[in-house]
Specification:
The complex is a heterodimer of chains A (273) and B (324). By secondary structure, chain A is mainly beta. Chain A is built from 2 helices and 17 strands. The longest helix of chain B is centred in the middle third of the chain and has 25 residues. In chain B, helix 4 links the parallel strand 6 and strand 7. The chains are: A mainly beta (273), B alpha/beta (324).
């Protein structure tokens, strides 16, 4: 498979290199377990509680379109802890760490907290969400997703329109149904090809250069909701939905930076009441 | 030409039968040459004088069907032959070539692909010995070239080693930028590229002598449509193509021949239903996941292979429509 090694140029690099070795040499089967290596690269010797109910991952068992697989991570309402970080990993992707979120004071508590996005899945793989709560403990949930794909599956359907409106960002906020509920919800969408560098350019015989969003910051006023590092495993036109804590003014400021160093910013447009 | 026999038509038989059957209905069907895997030819219908169509099975590709799951055809002029799509493997492509050879010895000067999907192009390789021009939409080379590795890997795993044998990706040697005419002697084929619809490299072909229109996968019948381009683009193309006055159209999947405008109605309804449902969900602030569980499911009983493709169609439609 013509997967090049990539350099995210950020803290994920160690994990990229460690896992690329596996992605390049291992057969496509689901059998071999690269999680111990990934775990060591990302969490060292720290203990991780598996399936202890603190975190839930919604993912399709079979993803018919491997280039846009919806994932939702939920923290059930009975979990009261403040959240410190969340790491999303697709074991078999060329860059297994999809996203790493560090939550801020405006992330909110009291109710079901969630983060959703859409990802590219290269081959049948375990998908993991590892939640770090305020006390520093780690909690993991895992799903196996059957996604037939391959690096080249991530092509735009129509490359001629891929960069139209690049940089256009929409931020929508959704107040809770109950006006006293403590969590708001928001959606952030960015027009961006999030090129992974694995798409063959038929005209040159080379690859279309990688260009993807590597960082996203969400603020409610001066308070941080979260900061997230991302990789090209996020689908074209990156799309995120998440909950955040109610404040005085509940509008959001979002900024994203891509690997070219371009910064994209937007403020939320109040939706409804 | 309407003889019903258990073996392949030879040229002599074919001519004899032609003479015997001077008056036959428009949609003549040459039934069932035994389609056993050992057979060396595909089943054919002559849907109009000199216009032959093979109907593929409405199935996912499998070792058993050997990649014979799309329609393919050929048009015979007084000087040469044009093949339109080549089926999904070298094995069945060879049987299509044998079927052409059973009908005519005229040179196969053109092999036209209606779009890039493997079930329509993976038989191209067997026509290389005829040294034809391989003709397609100018965007096909990019689309197929950049997906080639994945298409080959998928076909290998789904067809199995035996039916996969001999498959090569053969890219076009002649690119159609907008329109092009091909003279077959006594009849011409008009090739017209379309805006992004089923894929970004769709091409339609009209035979001047019989006003037969080959639509490729812009028209699905029975087989659920599969979206790999733009749902809004596809609906716009349908609006235009429905108004054509073709004597008959050939779908990429479904019967040998159909009539306009009715042929498009189920497909148009299917795609429009998805657009309506997905737009409503987006407006209500619902997610892609919600859409994959509800949008368009009222169409489920109307199509074969719905469970294989529908969720994928909705996913693609959602990603398109949330920005449209």
């Amino acid at each position: 498979m013509p997967c090049k090694a990539h350099h995210a140029g950020n803290a994920l690099l160690a994990a990229v290199v460690a896992a690329s070795l596996f992605a390049m040499t291992a057969p496509a089967g689901a059998e071999e377990d690269i999680w111990p290596t990934l775990k060591q690269a990302n969490f060292g010797d720290r203990a991780i509680q598996s399936e202890d109910g603190k975190v839930v991952l919604d993912a399709p068992v079979t993803a018919l379109d491997a280039s846009i697989v919806p994932l939702t991570v939920r923290v059930p309402p009975e979990v009261k802890d403040k959240l410190k970080s969340l790491t999303l990993i697709i074991d078999k992707n060329p860059t297994p760490v999809v996203a790493k979120i560090e939550f801020g004071p405006a992330a909110g508590t009291g109710g079901e907290r969630s983060v959703s996005t859409r990802v590219r899945i290269d081959t049948f793989s375990h998908v993991r969400a590892i939640l770090e709560t305020e006390d520093g403990s780690l909690h993991m949930t895992t799903k196996f997703v059957q996604a037939a794909g391959g690096c080249a599956a991530m092509n735009a359907k129509d490359p001629d329109t891929e960069n139209v409106d690049l940089g256009k960002m929409l931020v929508k906020t959704y107040p809770p149904a109950l006006s006293t509920a403590p969590l708001f919800e928001a959606q952030v969408m960015l027009k961006h090809p999030n090129s992974n560098g694995m798409q063959l350019d038929i005209d040159t015989g080379g690859y279309i250069p990688a260009r993807f969003v590597k960082e996203m910051t969400v603020k409610r006023g001066n308070d941080l909701v979260f900061r997230m590092e991302t990789t090209f495993s996020i689908s074209t036109n990156p799309n995120f939905r998440f909950t955040y804590g109610r404040g005085g003014d509940n509008e959001l400021d979002v900024s994203m930076v891509d690997t070219d160093g371009t910064v994209f910013t937007a403020k939320s447009q109040p939706s409804g009441s | 030409m309407c003889n019903n026999r258990g073996s392949v038509v030879t040229r002599k038989d074919f001519l004899r039968a032609s003479l015997a059957l001077a008056a036959v209905p428009l949609l003549r069907h040459v039934p069932a040459y035994a389609a056993a895997p050992s057979s060396d030819s595909v089943e054919l219908s002559e849907i109009a004088p000199g216009v032959f169509v093979h109907q593929g099975r409405v199935e996912m590709q499998s070792p058993e069907n050997e990649g014979d799951m799309a329609n393919a055809g050929f048009v015979v002029g007084s000087e040469s032959v044009a093949v339109i799509d080549t089926l999904g493997s070298a094995v069945v492509g060879e049987r299509l070539r044998n079927a052409v050879r059973a009908v005519t010895n005229k040179p196969i000067r053109y092999v036209i692909n209606t779009h890039m999907h493997p079930d329509h192009v993976f038989g191209n390789v067997v026509f290389k010995e005829d040294a034809p021009a391989f003709v397609a939409n100018h965007k096909l080379a990019r689309g197929l070239g950049s997906r080639a590795d994945r298409y080959l890997a998928m076909s290998k795993s789904m067809l199995g080693d035996k039916a996969f044998q001999g498959i090569e990706v053969v890219l076009p040697t002649v690119a159609v930028d907008d329109k092009m005419s091909l003279d077959l002697g006594g009849r011409t084929l008009l090739l017209e590229t379309q805006k992004t619809a089923h894929t970004d490299n769709d091409l339609i072909i009209t035979d001047s002598a019989t006003n037969t229109l080959f639509l490729g996968d812009l028209l699905f019948s029975v087989h659920v449509p599969t979206l790999d381009g733009s749902i809004l683009g596809w609906l716009a193309v349908i609006d235009t193509l429905k108004k054509r006055n073709a004597a008959r159209v050939v779908p990429g999947h479904g019967p040998h021949a159909m009539e306009l405008p009715e042929a498009f109605e189920p497909e148009q309804r299917y795609l429009a239903t998805i657009v309506t449902d997905v737009r409503k969900l987006i407006k209500e602030g619902k997610t892609l996941e919600d859409a994959t569980k509800t949008a368009g499911f009222e169409e489920r009983d109307a199509w074969k292979l719905f469970d294989h493709y529908h969720v994928r169609n909705v996913t693609a439609a959602f990603a398109e429509l949330e920005w449209a």
